[in-house]
Specification:
Strand order of the largest sheet: 7-6-3-2-37-38
Structural class: mainly beta
CATH topology of the largest domain: Methylamine Dehydrogenase, Chain H
Number of strands: 44
Largest sheet: 6 strands, antiparallel
CATH superfamily of the largest domain: Galactose oxidase/kelch, beta-propeller
Radius of gyration: 23 Å
Number of helices: 5
Length: about 575
């Protein structure tokens, strides 16, 4: 346990002792504090034994839904399409007629799911959510490589995939997407695709004008090798509106409107690749929007040495990388600062938690991405605290999961602060026996230590906001929240978290913005009022739906959905 959490625990125990002597609050205390089922390293919760598919791709959507899908050419899944529906696809490599689903919609509050109809192959595809909340899902394999698919979440059982054939100008298999400040989506790279394009296309353009709408990016060609180690490049939108693009070992600052590389950053030390199939992970650390100039820092962790893919094909599984690099890209002359994780990891997912900490979850300790190429599943997540001054205290190992999550696993942050984990299928088809890592159809959730009941007294509950109908840029939002034990205004922050599209160890479009907080005032015994300012620009936070968390003394509230307009 860190000194910070030990202090919070002692505080909670002291407050319990004081409040327990008051008859006015005895019932509240006994209802909030139950015998803890948490360790100091968080807790795992089993959700579903089988959702019928292996969750290779995940996206959290409004109305507390998570859409998941794998690929159509695994053969029949373990969940049928409803109402006798079947998918007919003469070009599918497994089944031309398939009456099973390869996508499901998971409902978080009820822990239930329903099958969806996806028509074309989504294998190793990408996605982003438009400002109106619609998921735009791009590319894939075979008949899906030029396809756009859309899904709009709904309250009832009516919403399903809608597909648009041949919308993409280039086949996008292993590409990366990023939502932009103007609401467009940029789609970058893919296998043997050293270029990028936008959704939506210019309305005056059609497929015949592809030379105008598809843009060559030499950096992608320069960073590839025989194993194509620049697939699923890491993209992050920076506060100046330009893109950070990382591929293999190199990274650039890129102006996508002028197709211009503005700067090349130093190579990450070690010269080992971090993108597929070496498959490390990356996050843009939280942006603090209460300063005149917003700093941006990228963190990249894990991966595999350069020889790993070829060696794994021969049955020799090399130890994964244990290093992380941080690069403050807004510095005039940035350099990587390297740190060492508690254990090596490839195929891990990095997610921003409501506190601003980073969880690294899933993955393997040996080998690389690809069919049967990983070994030594890493079961224990790690939480990294980027603001901890003592570098020796930044990493903290969490409770181990019961199930390996290796190649083709995924994870997303949920509105209640848990991390949803699913997938893992390192095989050409569904394989449930006779293999080291059987295809995994289950869902689990990891609860970080901040969800432990011992912190319930310090956990805020959002009661009311004036921005329920939407928050404008630089517009004030008033929030009323309740907390039983209030520490101080300096321990309060309000954060917007953009839900990610997660696949292949990269959470696309993920970002967190710490809003400018003007005041915190007490309005009752346990109620407080705060005023925050909406993000300063679409470059800081593109328009769309976000999770809004109030964090008090390191303990987050459950989130409210909020649309940034």
């Amino acid at each position: 346990m860190t000194a910070h959490n030990m202090s919070l625990t002692r505080t909670a125990i002291l407050i319990l002792f004081v409040i327990a002597s008051s008859p006015n609050f005895q019932a509240q205390v006994t209802s909030q504090f139950v015998p803890p089922n948490f360790s100091n390293e968080g807790a795992w919760q089993f959700l579903q034994a089988s959702i019928g598919i292996s969750a290779m791709h995940m996206q959290l959507l409004r109305y507390d839904k998570v859409i998941m899908f794998d690929r159509t050419d695994f053969g029949p899944s373990n969940v049928s399409l409803p109402d006798g529906r079947c998918r007919t696809d003469p070009s599918d490599t497994a089944l031309t007629v398939d009456c099973t689903a390869h996508s499901v919609l998971y409902d978080i509050p009820t822990n239930t799911f329903r099958p969806l109809m996806v028509q074309t192959d989504t294998w190793c595809s990408s996605g982003s959510v438009l400002p109106n909340g619609t998921l735009v899902q791009t590319g894939g394999y075979n008949d899906g490589q030029l396809r756009i698919r859309m899904f709009t979440s709904c309250h009832d059982q009516t919403c399903d995939w809608v597909e648009f054939p041949d919308y993409l100008l280039r086949r996008r298999w292993y590409a990366t997407n990023q939502i932009l400040p103007d609401g467009r989506i940029i789609v970058v790279g893919g296998r043997r695709q050293f270029n990028y394009e936008f959704y939506p296309r210019n309305p005056t353009q059609d497929s015949s004008s592809s030379t105008q709408a598809n843009f060559f990016l030499p950096f992608l060609q320069q960073t590839t090798d025989s194993n194509e180690n620049n697939l699923y490049p890491f993209l992050h939108l920076l506060p100046d509106g330009n893109l950070f693009i990382f591929a293999n070992t190199r990274s650039i600052l890129f102006d996508y409107d002028r197709n211009l590389v503005l700067k090349e950053f130093p190579r990450i030390p070690g010269e080992d690749p971090r993108n597929y199939p070496s498959t490390g992970s990356s996050v843009l650390l939280p942006l603090n929007d209460n300063k005149p100039s917003v700093e941006a820092e990228i963190m990249i962790c894990g991966g595999a040495p350069r020889a790993s893919f070829d060696e794994a094909r021969q049955g020799n599984f090399i130890q994964a990388l244990s290093t992380c690099g941080r690069l403050k890209v807004t510095d005039p002359n940035p350099n990587w600062v390297m740190e060492t994780m508690p254990m090596p990891r490839v195929l891990g997912d990095m997610l921003l938690l409501p506190t601003g900490d980073v969880i690294i979850i899933n993955g393997a300790g040996l080998g690389t991405a690809g069919w049967e190429h990983g070994r030594g599943a890493v079961l224990s997540p790690v939480i990294y605290r980027p603001l901890e001054e003592d570098s020796g205290l930044r990493f903290r190992v969490m409770s181990a999961a019961s199930k390996p999550r290796v190649y083709h696993s995924s994870a997303v942050l949920l509105p209640d602060g848990r991390v949803l984990v699913g997938g893992s299928n390192p095989h050409m088809n569904y394989s449930f026996s006779g293999v080291e890592f059987p295809t995994e159809l289950s869902l689990e959730a990891f609860s970080p230590p901040y969800l432990s009941p011992e912190f319930d007294l310090m956990r805020p509950t959002i009661l009311y906001t004036t921005c329920n109908d939407g928050l404008g840029y630089m517009v004030l939002c008033h929030i009323t929240f309740r907390v039983s034990y209030y520490v101080s205004a300096s321990e309060v922050s309000v954060r917007l978290a953009a839900p990610s599209f997660t696949t292949h160890s990269f959470a696309m479009n993920q970002r967190m913005v710490v809003l400018n907080l003007l005041v915190v005032a007490r309005t009752g015994w346990d109620t407080y009022y705060t005023t925050v300012v909406g993000p300063s620009s679409p470059q800081i936070a593109p328009p769309g739906f976000y999770l809004m968390f109030v964090v008090h003394a390191g303990t987050p509230s459950a989130a409210l959905w909020l649309q940034l307009l």
